[in-house]
Amino acid sequence: MSFALATDGGVYLFDAGDSCAYTAHVMGIDLLSARAVFISHTHMDHIGGLPFLVATLFKLAGMAGGAGYPLAGGKLEVLIPDRACWEGVLGMLGTDESDPLLPFRFHAHTYADGEVFDDGSVRVTALHNEHLGAPTPPGPWRSFSFRIEAEGKSIVYSGDVKHISELAPLAGAGCDLLLMETGHHVIPEVCRYLRDAAWPIGRTAFIHHGRATLADPDGERRKGSDILGREVLVLMDRQRMTL
After folding, report:
1. pTM listed for this prediction
2. Which pLDDT tens digit goes with each residue over 52-62?
């Protein structure tokens, strides 16, 4: 699971599932314009592509000649709920954040509920969910959903959630786009909840699919559209959309 948000200020990556760097590169997404990577939780399907993403950035920077590319002299923000997983990524690549030969700097850190990022172009607010269960106090939450605001638009990305109701603080007052996973839910169930909750959502798109959606994506899309009384989207690999 991974998606990229492209704005005038750069590219922002949310989760880093397997092959995310390759897919982004062949789609023509300028990875050297990346400003930040947001990891919702550290299950393999959301983080398995992170080592290759970092390695790809190193290679692309080298191909650019070490000067003049967007990350030169800058940094890449990495927001991740478990710092140990990031250390593992660097260990796989045989480097660390103090390596003077790195073509750019990393700023990797954990985060908690609230505003976690604002670079003037994109603002991101995080809210924990119960996908991984409640931590034993005083342990931190390890799974999050995000509200993303950029260029006058708002996106709520569910990550993996125990129940869609957990998104109410992020989406209940409205958003332009809801990106909702179906890996642990089915589209009709989600759409019935959205219909009854009457959240003022502009567009609803389903991502990170489970078996029911993959078995019949068009049929599930029609079911969801009929329930909500408006068209919903079932997004697939390499799909683009403009908000």
Report:
1. 0.95
2. 999 998 888 77
